[in-house]
Amino acid sequence: MSESVEIELFDNPNAERDYRITIRCPEFTSVCPRTSQPDFGEIVIEYCPDKLCIELKSLKFYMQSYRNKGIFYEALTNDILDDLSRVCRPRWMKVTSRFTPRGGITTEVVAEYQANG
Q1: Of the candidates 21, 43, 32, which has an alpha carbon nearest to the alpha carbon of residue 102?
Q2: Residue 49 near residue 91, CB atoms below 8 Å
Q3: d(Cα 14, Cα 49) in Å, to the nearest integer?
Q4: Quick check: 97 and 109 in contact, CB under 8 A?
Q5: What CA–CA distance (Å, rounded) separates 40 from 47?
Q6: Residue 63 near residue 24 (C-beta atoms within 8 A)
Q7: Is the dihedral of CA 6, 12, 15, 20 positive or negative?
Q8: Given pLDDT bands bounded at 50, 70 and 90, which one contains residue 5?
Q9: DSSP string, 45-82
Q10: How far is Cα 93 from Cα 77, in angstroms, rounded to an integer?
Q11: Are 40 and 100 within 8 A, CB to CB?
């Protein structure tokens, strides 16, 4: 996780119930580490919170920290999942990244986290 960006959390108001939160980040950008060209896509975060929920303003700043970072789609999808699941400890989380076509090819990467026990 970016050292300068902290994901803020708040108490789950309905921790006794399983429910799904879906967050869409349709203007995600990062940089291709091979070409140094910008990559544009959408990140979708779905999760079932346990005790904590993700605060959206801090999430926005976290997502913006990738703007100038050279990283492959597979790595960034798993990094986002690792960072978010580490701080909020959800019951379940899925991160899907969908990138706009490059050379006529689109890419979608999905990574999931499942709490133990």
Answers
A1: 32
A2: yes
A3: 9
A4: yes
A5: 23
A6: no
A7: negative
A8: confident
A9: EEEE-SSEEE-HHHHHHHHHTTTT-B--HHHHHHHHHH
A10: 12
A11: yes
Query: Tokens at residue 102, please?
Result: 């490059």
Residue range 23-73, pLDDT digits in tens? 999 999 999 999 999 999 999 999 999 999 999 999 999 999 999 999 999
Q: Nearest CA to 73 among 117, 105, 115, 116?
A: 105
Catalytic positions are 32, 39
Tokens of 34: 């091979």
What pTM, to 2 d.p., does this model score?
0.94
Q: End-to-end distance of the chain based on CA atoms, in angstroms?
A: 26
Per the listing, tokens 């959390």 go with: 9
Calculate what percentage of the chain has a pLDDT beyond 90.
Answer: 92
- Residue 93: beta bridge partners? 47, 113
Token representation of residue 11:
């108490």
